[in-house]
Amino acid sequence: MDLQSSVAEALINSPDTLFGREEAKTIITEFFSLGFDTTYTINFNQKDIAKHVYGYMCARAVQAAGKTLAYQQEGAKEAFYICEGSYFSQMHTVQLMEQWLTQKNKDLGATHAISIRSYHSQEITSPCILLVAEFCPFIESSGTKGEDFRNLTTEKFMRLRPKETRERYESIVRKMEDSIKPVYTVNAIGDGLLALKMCFIPDRVSYMAPLITLINSISGAVVCKKFCETMSNGMHVYTYYVRGAQMNELVQAAGLIGMLPNYPKRVTTKLYNSNMIDANEVIYYNSLIHFAFFFTPPSRNEDFSELARELRHKAMAGRRLINLRKEMFQSIMSMDFISKVVMEHIDLLKLIFKDFMTGPTPESCASLQTLLAGQLTQTSALTRSIFATFITFNRSVIKTNFFKVNKAAVAYRLDPSFLKEMDYPRVPFGIFFLVGPQFIGFHIRFTDIARGGVRMIISRSHQYDKNRQTLFGENYNLAYAQLLKNKDIPEGGSKGTILVHPTSTYDRRRTFLQYVDALLDLIIPGVEGVRSNMKEPEIIFLGPDENTAGAFPAYAALHAKARGYSLWKSFTTGKAPQLGGIPHDTYGMTSRGVRTFAEEMYKKLELDEASLTKFQTGGPDGDLGSNEILLSKETYKCLVDGSGSLYDPEGLNRDELVRLAKKRATLCEYDISKLSARGFFVNVKDKDRKLPDGTLVQNGEQFRNSFHFSPYCVTDSFIPCGGRPSSINLDNVHKLVLGVEVTGQSMIDGKVGNLADSPGKLRFRYIVEGANLFITHDARIALENVGVILIKDSSANKGGVTCSSLEVLSGLSLLDAEHKDNMCVGPSGSDVPEFYKRYVDEVIGILYRNAAREFECVWKERKANTHQGLITHISDSLSSKIVEIRQFINSSDLHEDQTLYRYVLRRYIPSTLQEKVPLNLILERVPTPYLRAIFAIWIASDFVYTSGIAQANEFQFFTYMGQLSKKAHGDSSSKL
Fold this sequence. Notes:
Elements (H helix, E strand, L loop, with lengths): L2 H10 L8 H12 L6 H5 L2 H19 L5 E5 L3 E7 L2 H22 L3 E9 L7 E10 L11 H4 L2 H6 L2 H15 L5 E8 L2 E8 L7 H9 L5 E9 L5 E8 L3 H8 L12 H7 L5 H17 L6 H9 L4 H18 L2 H10 L1 H13 L3 H14 L5 H16 E4 L9 E5 L15 E6 L3 E7 L4 E8 L3 H9 L1 H15 L6 E9 L7 H16 L7 E2 L8 E3 L8 H11 L5 H4 L12 H4 L1 H16 L8 E5 L5 H9 L3 E7 L2 E4 L6 H10 L16 E4 L3 E4 L5 E4 H6 L9 E6 L23 H5 L15 E5 L8 H9 L3 E3 L1 H4 L2 H15 L2 H8 L10 H30 L7 H20 L7 H11 L2 H6 L2 H7 L2 H20 L6 H17 L6
Parallel strand pairs: 13-14, 13-16, 17-18, 17-23, 23-24, 24-25
Antiparallel strand pairs: 1-2, 2-4, 3-4, 3-7, 5-6, 6-8, 7-8, 9-10, 9-15, 10-11, 11-12, 12-14, 18-19, 19-20, 21-22
C-alpha cells in the first residue's frame, strides 16, 4: 500500500473523521499536490500526516465558507498549524504557536528540545503553510561547552537527520560556543535558492516571528521552508530557505539578527511585527527611547527657580530640592510613557530616523525642531520635551557603529554638552552609550585619558526598573568619584556600567564581551561601518568592578588583541599575572591604601589599633574585605557579606577570620562553635530566626541589609569594604547617633553638636571608606558635624588605582615580546620574572608614599580648620584643586620645555621600568596624550601636596614652577 493510501485508511478509520472515503481521497490528493519539501515524509509518519490532512480539510472547509484558510491543533507536546502564505497570516499563526510554546515550555523547557518545521506549498496563486512544533526530550538536559554534540540534541534529531545535516548543525553550534554574536552562514543551493542557517541564544522560546519580518523586508524574497532546533545549552539553530533574494541582501539582513527585538511587550517589537518599521528602525528607536528615558530634562517652572534661588547658599538643601524634583519627574517619565509617545507619532519618528541615517547637521536639526513645533502644538509639554530630546540624541552622536554589519551591540559616542541643561555638577569629557541585545550600558570619562572599572548590574525582575532608573546617575557618580580619587595618576576618572535585562539568557562573559566589542568598534581606527565626526582616535582603559572581576579583564584584553587593537595589553587592568596583571587582591593594593589612612589616623589620635573594635561590610570572600582582615589589627565585633550577618560581642575569632580570608570564603563558612554564647550568624536565607537574646529575625536578607543600624553594631571603627552605593544617606544617617533624637538635616545644620566625647552616643567614632559611595556626600557631612572622624573614599581607596595605572604604563612601554618575558608570570604561577617582582615592590612603595602624602596634607588642613575641619570637604577640595591644575597644565604649553618634560617623566615613571626601557624609547612607544597626562598630574599633585590647599594659588604656582624648572635644568639626566 502506497503512502497516500495508508494515510487515507488512517484518516477514514479515525474515530473523529467527518469525511467519507471519496472525499478523503480527493483532499489527500490535493494535500500531497501542495508540493511540500521531500523531508516532510521523512519526518512524519502516516498517523502524523493523517492529522495534518484532517487539519487541511478543516481549513479548506473554513476557507470555502469565505474565511481565511486556518487551522490549529495543540496537544500536550506537539501542535500543528495551517495558514495562508501571506505575511500577516504567517505572523498571526506563528504568534499563536509561540503562545503555545511559551505555555508548555514552563513545564518542559528544562528537559525538552523544541523542534519546529514549516513547509510551504509550491502553489503560487493560493499558497499554504504547514507549521509543526513539538517538544522532544533531550538526550542530556544540561548541555555544556565542548560536550559531545549528540548530548545537546534529541534521539529523534539524531535518528532522522542525515550525517551531513548533523555535521552542519554541530559546526555552527561549535562556532557559537565561542562567539559573542549570532553565527550565520548564507549558501547558494542552486536554482536561485539561498540557505540561511543561524545559531544564537535568544531569551524567548521562538524567534520565528522576527525572522519572518526580517526576510519579508527584502523586496521579492520568499521563504520556501524554515526549520528550528533548540539545544540543551540554550542555543537555537534556525534554517531558512529563501528564493528571490540576492546573496548580499540576505547577508545584510542576517547581520541584524542579534539586534532584533527580544521582548514581545516592547513597542518596537509590536511595530516591527506589524511591519510598520524595519530592523534598522528597531535598533534606532530602542536606542532613542532609552536615551529619552535618561536624558529628557525636568521642566524648570517659576516655583522651582524661586526655591533654587532661596537655597543657593545652602548646598545640601539645594541638592535635596534637585533630588526631589528628579524623583518626581522620574515617576512620570517612564519607558511606557515614552513608548506611548512613539506609538502615537511614528510618522514623526520616521523623519527623525531619516535625519539620523543621512547624517544630522545643525541645519537639519533646526529644521526638524521647527517642523515638530508645528506638528506637536496640541500635545503635552512632556511630549514636546521628549521629542526635543530625540533631536538632541541625533545632534549629540559624534561616532557610532550603527552602520556596521553584525555588531555585538550598538554603541554611540556622545558629545556630552547636552548635560549642561541637567542637574550634574560637571560635564564629562565623553560619554559612550550602548544598547545590546539584552543590556544597556554607559561608559563615562571626565578626561581624555581616563581609567575606571566596568560594573555589571544583575537585577531580579522587581529590582530592574529601579536599577534602570538610577543607572546613568550611578555611573556618573562613580566616574566623578573616580576623577577625585585619581589624583596621583595620569588617568582621570571614568566608569562603565552594564545593566543586564532580568530575562537575559546570556552568561556574564558573553554580555561583558558584547559591551567591550562595541566599545572597540569606536576606538579601533578604520572599523568598517563606523560613522565618525571625530578627528582623533580615542584611548580607553577599563578595569574590574562588581561582577566583572576575576577572568573578565583577561577576556577583554585578549578580545582586543584578537581584534588587532595595538594597545591591548593596557586596555584592561586587573588581569591575571599570566597576562602581565598585578592583582589587587593578591597584593592587597586597595587595602594597603585604606590601611595607610586608618593607621595614620590612629597614630595622630594616639590610639592603639589592637585595642579598637571594628565593624566591616564586605566579607572575607572579596578583594578589599579579605585583605582588610589580613592587614588590620582591630578586634572585629561584626561583619556582613553576601551570605549574611556575623556578630560576637566578645570579638570574632581572628584565626577563623584569617582562615576564611585566605580561602576567600563567605561568612556562612565561619565555624560557629568559635562564637561566644551571645554571638550569632544569620544567613540571608533565614526566616523567623531567634537570636541568643530572644530577638526574632523574620527575614535574614533584610536583617543583613540594615545590620549597620542594628543594636548589635556599635564599634569604635567602621570600614565599609562592600555594599551598594548610598547605603547610608541623609534619610537614615540619624540612626548612627544613639540615645539622641536627631534627623539628618539637624545633623547637617549643626544643631546636634559634637558627640565625640559623649560615651555611647556615636555608633562608630571612626570611619574609613574602603567601598566607593557607600555613604552619600550629605550623610558624610552630617556624621562629621556630630564628631565622627571620616576618611572619604576618594582618599582612602586610591591604592588600587595607583597599581592599575602603573600596570597600564608597563603595557604601553613594553613591546609584546618584552611584556611576555618581563611582566607575564608562568602558567603555574610560580615562574615569576625578576622584573615583575621588582616592579610590584616599587608599585607598593609608590602606593604607600602617595597615600601618606595625601593623609598628611588632609590632616594638616583639618588642624588648620580649613572647611571647618571637615575632612569630606577638605578631601574634595584637594582633589578638585589637583584636577583644576591638571586641566590648566594640559591646556598649556609647559610640556614644550623638553628638559622640564623629561625631568617630570623621570620622576613619575618607576625606575625599574626605566632601567628596562630607556626614556627615549618610552617617548616613542607610549601615546603622547598619555605622557602629557603624566606630566600634568605629577606637577599638579606635587604642587598641591607641597603647598597645601589654601596656598595653592596662582602666585604660589608660579614660584613652584620656577623652582621645579631650576631643578630640571640642573639635572643633567633630564637634558636631551
